[in-house]
Design a protein that fits this description.
- The complex is a heterodimer.
- By secondary structure, chain A is an all-alpha fold.
- Chain A has a domain at 63-186.
- Chain A contains eight helices and no strands.
- Chain A has helices at 4-11, 14-46, 60-87, 90-121, 130-151, 155-180, 202-234, 239-249.
- The model of chain A has no long low-confidence stretch (mean pLDDT 85).
- Chain B is mainly α.
- Chain B has one domain.
- Chain B contains nine helices and no strands.
- The radius of gyration of chain B is 18 Å and the shape is elongated.
- Classes of the chains: A mainly alpha, B mainly alpha.
- At the A-B interface, α5 and α6 of A face α7, α8 and α9 of B.
Chain lengths: 250, 221
């Protein structure tokens, strides 16, 4: 059995990662499929309608997991940036490369579902209140990372430049978040926090919890699959990659 | 070390006057455009004046950031700094300090004129100047990170704006709300402390990020 330190050390090796990660991917993908399937069906079809909002509240089962991920993915990017700059881990660069488009899409999804829900509930598609604004800024931060990588031709330099930007962004996210919330505003407080019991009845929040966990599993499965692809792309010239691909094809 | 570097940067900037004047001219041109766009409606103009001033300050600062590292990058001076300067963030800090003197500080000094053109109440002007004095260093310091990351990129201007403007948002929010509160006659100190806090935080952290970013950009060539 590996100690944590050994595990961490080996995670830096693309070869070791590629050999070991297939079952991890399968596990997370299956978990994500089951949890999201159950959670979405439960939330969208079986949970009772809200006494004020009727059925429109059900978008929460997509919106909240997406908004959770939107922030978590950026924190992962910041952590990957530190790993890349300090320990020069190749895998960290791949995380930084592959998770930017994922973060961009999931943030866009959070904004879109929020707008769709806001129209019947708040009476407006869009309002520059604290949380919507900070999520929009997050979208621009993701887009900045994406654009910076596109602009720099050499992959290694691009990765390290993005690492600096991701770290600066991660430090700035709480500052931006709290300064836009200075004008508090239309958006209700967090529906779900780690520290307080939810104000919703269990029949409503249980599917949400299932969906949130499922969304994180989806993130993990996506991360592992994209990292595996990135390993093949970047290490494509190495003999072990050819052997591994030949073995899989056979 | 800092003093020598500061002197060198100061001489470079002083001998390239257009680099000082262009952002300031841009600022006043922007003020003029807004004044015209409001079509002589002084009341509306003075109501929006804090927002207009701050947005133009952000953009003027961005304009001068684009050339912050460019000349030294192109003629190889920047590479020498990274090789020679111990530690490199001191050299970087001196560059940013000079950049701030010719943008943030100059804008602060000229702010009464902009306030006059936007028909802001005269009693709000000292507070506008204080807010600018406290807020603009944070803009220069944060912006320098973006400038250092994009210096090697061809046509980096739009990219720089994309990277840096989201990070400017807190300064914009607190700058505008403090200025607007004072223009409306309310004594609001909280936002001013916040601006000072952002600047201190940027001053402690961003020189390291800028130095790291300069090194990364130099690898490219």
């Amino acid at each position: 059995m590996l100690t944590f330190k050994q595990f961490w050390h080996r995670l830096g090796s693309p070869k070791w990662f590629y050999r070991m990660s297939r079952p991890w991917f399968v596990a997370f993908a299956v978990a994500a499929g089951v949890l999201l399937g159950v959670g979405l069906a439960w939330g969208l079809a079986f949970a009772p309608p809200d006494y004020q909002q009727g059925d429109s509240f059900r978008i929460i089962y997509v919106h909240v997991p997406a908004a959770f991920l939107a922030q978590s993915v950026y924190i992962v990017l910041g952590a990957a940036g530190v790993l890349l700059l300090v320990w020069r881990m190749k895998m960290a660069d791949m995380v930084l490369e592959t998770m930017v488009p994922f973060g961009l899409w999931i943030t866009a999804l959070a904004l879109f579902t929020g707008a769709v829900w806001g129209r019947p509930t708040w009476g407006t598609w869009w309002e520059f209140d604290g949380r919507t604004t900070s999520t929009l800024v997050l979208l621009f931060l993701y887009f900045g990372l994406y654009a910076l990588r596109q602009a720099i031709p050499r992959a290694e330099t691009a990765g390290r430049a993005c690492a600096v930007l991701a770290i600066v962004g991660t430090i700035n996210i709480p500052i931006i978040k709290y300064s836009v919330e200075w004008w508090t505003t239309l958006h209700q407080g967090a529906t779900f926090t780690l520290t307080e019991p939810p104000a919703m009845p269990p029949v409503m929040w249980a599917p949400l919890l299932v969906n949130v966990v499922g969304a994180y599993c989806l993130f993990a499965a996506n991360l592992i699959a994209q990292l595996r692809n990135a390993v093949l792309r970047r290490e494509g010239g190495a003999q072990w990659v050819r052997d591994a691909v030949a073995a899989e094809a056979a | 070390m800092f003093a020598a570097q500061f002197r060198r940067e100061w001489l470079c900037v002083a001998r390239a006057r257009d680099e000082i004047l262009n952002p300031l001219a841009f600022l006043f041109l922007g003020v003029l455009l807004f004044a015209m766009a409001f079509g002589g409606d002084d009341e509306a103009l003075s109501a929006y004046a804090p927002g207009i001033v701050w947005v133009l300050v952000l953009l003027a600062n961005l304009m001068s950031l684009e050339i912050l590292f460019r000349r030294d990058f192109e003629d190889g001076t920047l590479e020498q700094f990274v090789l020679l300067a111990r530690p490199p963030f001191v050299a970087v800090l001196a560059k940013v300090a000079v950049q701030w003197c010719v943008t943030g500080f100059a804008i602060t000094a000229l702010a009464p004129l902009a306030a006059l053109m936007l028909s802001m109440p005269p009693e709000a002007v000292p507070m506008l100047m204080l807010c600018l004095l406290l807020g603009t260093p944070a803009l220069s310091l944060l912006g320098a990170v973006g400038a250092a990351l994009t210096v090697g990129v061809r046509k980096g201007g739009v990219l720089l704006a994309l990277l840096v403007l989201p990070l400017y948002l807190p300064v914009l929010i607190f700058g505008v709300s403090a200025t607007a509160a004072w223009a409306g006659g309310a004594a609001e100190w909280a936002q001013i402390y916040w601006l000072a806090g952002f600047t201190m935080l940027a001053l402690t952290l961003s020189p390291f990020a800028v130095a790291a970013a300069v090194k990364i950009s130099l690898e490219e060539c």
